[in-house]
């Protein structure tokens, strides 16, 4: 996993956070369900990006529809006051998916 | 967290409904109230008014119920049950059976309200698999 954030953002802007994960397995139904449920617990706007496609991870079917395969890179992005926690939680699910 | 929206799967086939229940419990959650009404009262292919009504009652935790029929007479039976027992918080939802069930259960598991769960199931129609 690699991470980046912009702590220098002005105080009026919502924090942004981003991480990339190399998938240890195909992003199939079960981890997609875990991602969707986890994403729904945060208030930040979250995006998953894979192969030039971006989806909202609260949509389990959209996550499955990415068709992300083992060894490929998925980027998790969030913007909001719990952006860092959201990105950390979702990246963890992606990085440990079986 | 408040009570979860309940989900009812209405299918012509008891095996189809119970298989879909196993699938959504794996992908979505095994904590969302979920009942199936599959097949006729005597286990044949078809749908049962009494099984649908009992299934709705069994998943009602006060947050509303989403009823997902597979097709044809499952739709008609579910609509008849709801017409006989009209309630604003029990909705029959027009959605693809498998995808709608997965979306509904995942959304309900996150504590979403009835409208959000219903919308998630309906929107399953517009999500591409490829």
UniProtKB/TrEMBL annotation, chain A:
SUPFAM superfamilies (UniProt xref): HPr-like
Top-rank taxon: Bacteria
Record CDD domains: PTS-HPr_like
Gene3D superfamilies xref list: HPr-like
Domain HPr stretches: 14-98
Alphabetical list of Pfam families matching this protein: PTS-HPr (PF00381)
Keywords for the protein's UniProt record, in alphabetical order: Sugar transport, Transport
PANTHER family listed in its UniProt record: PHOSPHOCARRIER PROTEIN HPR
Function comment: General (non sugar-specific) component of the phosphoenolpyruvate-dependent sugar phosphotransferase system (sugar PTS). This major carbohydrate active-transport system catalyzes the phosphorylation of incoming sugar substrates concomitantly with their translocation across the cell membrane. The phosphoryl group from phosphoenolpyruvate (PEP) is transferred to the phosphoryl carrier protein HPr by enzyme I. Phospho-HPr then transfers it to the PTS EIIA domain.
Protein's recorded name: Phosphocarrier protein HPr
Species in which this protein is naturally found: Streptomyces umbrinus
Taxonomy of the source species: Bacteria, Bacillati, Actinomycetota, Actinomycetes, Kitasatosporales
TrEMBL record, chain B:
Sorted UniProt keywords: Transferase
SUPFAM superfamilies: PTS system fructose IIA component-like (SSF53062)
Record field: catalytic activity: dihydroxyacetone + phosphoenolpyruvate = dihydroxyacetone phosphate + pyruvate
Keyword Methyltransferase: no
Top-tier EC class: transferase
PROSITE patterns: PTS_EIIA_TYPE_4 (PS51096)
Residue ranges constituting the PTS EIIA type-4 domain according to the UniProt record: 4-130
Chain's role: Component of the dihydroxyacetone kinase complex, which is responsible for the phosphoenolpyruvate (PEP)-dependent phosphorylation of dihydroxyacetone. DhaM serves as the phosphoryl donor. Is phosphorylated by phosphoenolpyruvate in an EI- and HPr-dependent reaction, and a phosphorelay system on histidine residues finally leads to phosphoryl transfer to DhaL and dihydroxyacetone.
PANTHER family xrefs: PEP-DEPENDENT DIHYDROXYACETONE KINASE, PHOSPHORYL DONOR SUBUNIT DHAM
Protein name: phosphoenolpyruvate--glycerone phosphotransferase
Organism: Streptomyces umbrinus
């Amino acid at each position: 996993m690699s991470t980046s954030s912009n702590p220098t953002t002005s105080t009026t802007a919502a924090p942004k956070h981003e991480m990339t994960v190399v998938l240890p397995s195909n992003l199939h139904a079960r981890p997609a369900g875990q991602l969707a449920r986890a994403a729904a617990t945060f208030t930040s706007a979250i995006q998953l990006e894979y192969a030039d496609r971006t989806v909202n991870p609260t949509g389990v079917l959209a996550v499955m529809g990415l068709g992300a395969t083992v060894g490929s890179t998925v980027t998790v992005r969030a913007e909001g006051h719990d952006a860092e926690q959201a990105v950390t939680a979702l990246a963890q699910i992606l990085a440990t998916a079986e | 967290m408040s009570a979860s929206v309940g989900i009812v799967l209405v299918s012509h086939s008891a095996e189809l409904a119970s298989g879909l229940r196993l699938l959504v419990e794996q992908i979505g959650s095994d904590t969302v109230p979920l009942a199936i009404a599959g097949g006729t009262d005597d286990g044949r292919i078809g749908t049962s008014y009494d099984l649908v009504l009992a299934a709705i009652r069994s998943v009602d935790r006060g947050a509303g119920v989403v009823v997902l029929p597979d097709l044809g007479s499952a739709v008609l039976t579910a609509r008849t049950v709801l017409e006989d027992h009209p309630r604003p918080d029990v909705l029959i939802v027009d959605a693809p059976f498998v995808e709608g069930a997965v979306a509904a259960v995942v959304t309900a598991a996150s504590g979403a309200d009835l409208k959000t769960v219903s919308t998630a199931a309906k929107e399953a129609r517009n999500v591409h698999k490829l």
